[in-house]
UniProtKB/TrEMBL annotation:
Involved in chemotaxis. Part of a chemotaxis signal transduction system that modulates chemotaxis in response to various stimuli. Catalyzes the demethylation of specific methylglutamate residues introduced into the chemoreceptors (methyl-accepting chemotaxis proteins or MCP) by CheR. Also mediates the irreversible deamidation of specific glutamine residues to glutamic acid. GO terms for cellular component: cytoplasm. This is Protein-glutamate methylesterase/protein-glutamine glutaminase. It comes from the Bacteria. Its main location: cytoplasm. One of its GO terms (biological process) is chemotaxis. It comes from Pseudobacillus wudalianchiensis. The lineage of its organism: Bacteria, Bacillati, Bacillota, Bacilli, Bacillales.
Amino acid sequence: MDKRIGVMIVDDSAFMRKTISDMVEASSELYVAGKARNGLDALEKIKRLKPDVVTLDIEMPKLDGLDTLRRMMEECPTPVMMISNGAESTLEAFDIGAVDFVVKEDLVKEVEGGKLINFHQRITAAANAKLPVSSVTSESKKEERQVELAKEKEAFRQKQKMSMIVIGSSTGGPAALQKILTRFPEDFPLPILIIQHMPPGFTKPLAERFNSLCHICVKEAEHNEKMEPGTAYVAPAGLQTAVQEIEGHYQIKLKISAPVETLYKPSVDVALLSIAPIVKDKLLAVILTGMGDDGLRGCKRVKQAGGTVLSESEETCIVYGMPKVVYEAGLADKQIPLYDVYDQMIDYL
């Protein structure tokens, strides 16, 4: 029995099918389980060949990527990595059940540069990922939350001990973040900084999407912006986000380079290393699903400064990487499933 990871490639472009196929075959741990040029063809082959993971193009004839994904999640649930250039369609794919995505142009650049390790790591992580539950928040569900939110508002006023929340996430993060952020009431008394690994051009649409669903304000962070209570700031992709304390308030600083070596822009480590010394024991850091170890160095600094760290448990992580290293290093005050993260955060306020 083949123990390698079987990859189904779905793309209407013969060039992209060949490109992804070559990338897959370059790894001894992966193999091409099959190829399809449209969604209908893909659904039939996925049911028959049962691949471990599917790379899925968005724009295809007969049945496009999003409709294919919807039917897959209903008929033959399989981990999916979207191949896309569009932020809006990619974010919708996360709502439906995709676990990760790769920008098509970046994929071609990796091939041309001979740097395939990132793709191989991500496709492997996607194959081993747990399928997320759809995170679409309906208007009726938002209305059902009004009574709970009203009860929580008074509790916030009485309990507030923290000054800032920082949330770090990567693979599987958008869906996890949406589940948490939609629970905050409009007058939440703290600023929230979100460090989500994403390529340039995707963090602003992500913030806008969250803002349309949430009671609090959610926006992409801007340089020299004063952090306000009841606002969640999404760190922009392609830059490093730090925070300084100026005249008694916290101010966002966007930088091209980082004071520490890191693979990520934005980096959870960079943000926490700048914030922990100034917020100290009033900082709550939350590490959610994601591949790699970004956040480990930052959480060490948070604990040294007297702050609190929560990490998502393996039970609900799409990829149990970032939270795992934090927990195994003994840095997490608590390790909890996603559905308990919000309540635990409130307990620490």
